[in-house]
Amino acid sequence: MSQKRAGEFALIDLFLSQFPRARVPVGPGDDCAVLAPSRGAQCITTDAVVEDVHFKRAWFSPEDIGHKALAVNLSDLAAMGALPRWFVCALALPRDFPRRALLGLARGMSALAREHGIALVGGNFSSARELSVTLTAAGELPPGSPPLTRAGGRPGDVLYVSGTLGDARLGLAQLQAGRRRSPAILRQKRPVPRIALGRLASRFASAALDLSDGLAQDLGHLCRASGTGAELDVERLPVSRAVRASLGLEGALAGGEDYELLLAVPPGRTSAFERACLRAEESITRIGRLTPGPAGHMRVTGGRALRLPAGFDHFQQDGGAD
Amino acid sequence: MSQKRAGEFALIDLFLSQFPRARVPVGPGDDCAVLAPSRGAQCITTDAVVEDVHFKRAWFSPEDIGHKALAVNLSDLAAMGALPRWFVCALALPRDFPRRALLGLARGMSALAREHGIALVGGNFSSARELSVTLTAAGELPPGSPPLTRAGGRPGDVLYVSGTLGDARLGLAQLQAGRRRSPAILRQKRPVPRIALGRLASRFASAALDLSDGLAQDLGHLCRASGTGAELDVERLPVSRAVRASLGLEGALAGGEDYELLLAVPPGRTSAFERACLRAEESITRIGRLTPGPAGHMRVTGGRALRLPAGFDHFQQDGGAD
């Protein structure tokens, strides 16, 4: 039903002007981008950020939105152990979306793209009532290197998470309460994709995923895909004092949008993995282990009684000690 | 800000159930799909259909929406001469979107995917106020075969279009006027991507694109990319009697969403191209030729005075004969 207007092409040019020219046989502007054959296997993900679902324009600057749209896709590449290669960007823009905001969005996205060496090779603009940014990103695995899936975990594998948990959720609570700046708000707006850790982990780990829906739910995904249970030592969870005070451990477990990596490492490889992380200055914490199951059955250790997040039917508390 | 709920996973399963399992190392369900390295170069496109911009739910069945979302992406692959390989699907769904409608959308998409042998390898669901479907599709070129870009045209090359022009625009006008069924409405709702013609044309043509914004505007794109002008014989345009009567030739030229191919073929190859099209039962029409320029300067021949579409500043009428 729609037709492109001269104004739309001007917007596309404005957006593209913020990105370096992609070194590919055919870049943006033709019917398709054309890419040389990849040497290794390709990892493909698609993820969208939608106004009033993933961000509010009152809280997020255009740069934040551009950053976050790319970061959530890069985080998926990180979880596979892939090296970022290219992405395409589909923008749905309200008719009143300011040129300056579009420029900001492009800048936020471009800065993160540059940092991870990923090239924008194409895109699409359409109008819409609400702003949304839908990206498809591709990474490459070194030739012969297997991907890090959710399904490779085995009973006995040690569980690690990167960084800290619950901050992004605390940041959201603070935004809702009227605050505009804090370290937690920065985590909500500017997630850091763990690309380098994912590459490193691919040499050691049996399974991985990135935490987008909260550790409780995402650990369930890993367990069910791997056909294992899990045992979680809640005392070990890397949760800041601020998060603990505001959300409790329960809130940190349920908190979405951490974009940290959850990794399972076979017991014989944990020492080497921990040493490699230390050398690479990657922050990881051992939080438990995979168990024989039943698949998806998770048990909490750590002593204290804990009200576990409601709605996660695959998360059952068996009480304290074992 | 959002978190996935059990209901969302059920919707994803429902959607995926309508597609055959993709034969790839890792399909939908992990953080990324994993694809074996491609043998030839890859062509990548991303295109969205948005409620009330590209379709109205009152006029389009869910099957129509699913079909159209994939068709507009396949049409881009056709224009490069690529063979469809895989796609990912990002759905933004209103909260009240019925399960049955989601199933219909998946069925419409799946039927077209099957027809062209393209595999759904991943996707994403988010909620939104309006329905939108954003696809990224990839095709492959036979190893060593160059892509069919917009930029390869040379002065003297003969211009062809496939099928007929203006029907989808007439279909839209009929929908707006309250009609619900007609051949033109079918063209608006169910565009046919010209994949086989694109593959065939890649052996003969110097340049190509798919007509999404109307011949007048899209020929301008090809001319500017190729650095040529063009001469169009409007008497030859393949425009049905119904379109001619309702929209005039002007309307057919300006009519978007034809999703036919515009092809430039060097003069020495036209006979062989036309014979190959005849054998393959591909309908094409010779409509003019590329000229030395200036780049983007288009001239109309054909005798009759024609009011050319407004707003296409690159389209100038020099009058009749030459």
Which class of the largest domain in chain A in CATH terms?
Answer: Alpha Beta
Main sheet: strands, sense, barrel of chain A: 6 strands, mixed
**C-alpha geometry of chain A:** globular
Low-confidence spans of chain A:
310-322
User: What oligomeric state is this?
Assistant: homodimer
What fraction, in percent, of the residue positions of chain A are helical? 25-40%
- DSSP, total strands of chain A: 11
Order of helices and strands of chain A: HEEHEHEEEHHHEHEHEHEE
| Cα-based radius of gyration of chain A, to the nearest Å | 21 Å
Straight-line distance between termini of chain A: 63 Å
Strand proportion of chain A: 15-25%
Mean pLDDT of chain A: 90
The most extensive interface between chains reads:
A-B, 78 and 78 residues
CATH topology of the largest domain in chain A: Phosphoribosyl-aminoimidazole Synthetase, Chain A, domain 2
Q: CATH homologous superfamily of the largest domain in chain A?
A: PurM-like C-terminal domain
Strand arrangement, major sheet of chain A? 7-9-6-10-8-11
Binding site for substrate (chains A, B): 54, 257, 312
Family (chains A, B): Belongs to the thiamine-monophosphate kinase family.
Organism (chains A, B): Cystobacter fuscus (strain ATCC 25194 / DSM 2262 / NBRC 100088 / M29)
GO molecular function (chains A, B): ATP binding; magnesium ion binding; thiamine-phosphate kinase activity
Give the helices and strands, then pairings.
Two copies of one chain form a homodimer.
Chain A: H1 6-16, E1 33-35, E2 42-50, H2 62-80, E3 83-93, H3 99-115, E4 119-127, E5 132-140, E6 158-162, H4 167-176, H5 183-189, H6 195-201, E7 207-210, H7 215-226, E8 229-233, H8 241-254, E9 261-265, H9 270-279, E10 284-291, E11 298-301
Parallel strand pairs in A: 3-4, 8-11
Antiparallel strand pairs in A: 2-5, 3-5, 6-9, 6-10, 7-9, 8-10
